[in-house]
Amino acid sequence: MELFIEVERHSGAYFEPYITDHITAERAGCVFHFHEDDITDEGADLFCQVLLQQARKWNPLPADAPRGQRIPIWMEMRTDLPDGYAILVEDCAEFIKYIARPGLIEPRAAESITRHQSERSPDWWRLPARYGVRSRTA
Fold first, then answer.
1. Which of 31, 51, 79, 95 could share a disulfide with 6, CB 3.0–4.6 Å?
2. By C-alpha distance, which of 90, 111, 100 is closest to 134?
3. What are the C-alpha distances in Å from 10 to residues 7, 15, 16?
4. Distances (CA, A) of 77 to 41, 44, 47, 111, 127
5. Which residues does residue 28 pair with via DSSP β-bridges, in sequence order?
6. Which of 128, 125, 134, 36 minimizes the C-alpha distance to 85?
7. Which residues of 62-81 are buried (b: 16+ CB within 10 A; e: fewer)?
8. pLDDT tens digit string along 18-39?
């Protein structure tokens, strides 16, 4: 089954970021929807890459498994990322922390999308990992 993640920017009236799932027999994934004021083109591309890395570490719980615990997920904006990285992710059993270069995503969108991810976390199990994406403009 093909795994996909998309990050879309939309114009028009402002809305809070949200996530939609798309699962068929051939493909499984989700789309992260942002207003164009909340994420840059570069941010959308980089978050798409890092969210795909994250999705490779997460799997839905089996239908007969009890829901897991809700884990906190948040994002920090920092200018001191190492080696040209634009986004790093600490994906642990207890929490997930994104560290992103300022200017890629607005703080209000970061808070909103990580809150939505946290609300969804009890339905998934994960393999802990650290990963990130480099930026050509870093």
1. 31
2. 100
3. 10, 9, 11
4. 17, 16, 14, 11, 24
5. 3, 23
6. 134
7. eeeeeeeeebebebeeeeeb
8. 999 888 888 888 999 999 999 9
Type and span of the H or E element at 60: strand 58-60
Residue 41 class from Cβ within 10 Å (0-12 exposed, 13-18 middle, 19+ buried)?
A: exposed
Q: Which pairs with CB-CB distance under 8 Å and at least 24 residues apart come from 78-86?
A: 78/102, 81/132, 81/138, 83/134, 84/134, 84/135, 84/138, 85/132, 85/133, 85/134, 85/135, 85/138, 86/42, 86/46, 86/132, 86/133, 86/134, 86/135, 86/137, 86/138
Residue 47 tokens, joined: 């978050």
pLDDT in tens, 61-114: 778 889 989 999 999 999 999 888 999 999 888 899 999 999 999 999 999 999
Which two tokens mark 71? 């884990």
Q: What is the DSSP letter of 39?
A: B
Q: Which amino acid is at 70?
A: R
How many residues appear in the chain? Answer: 138
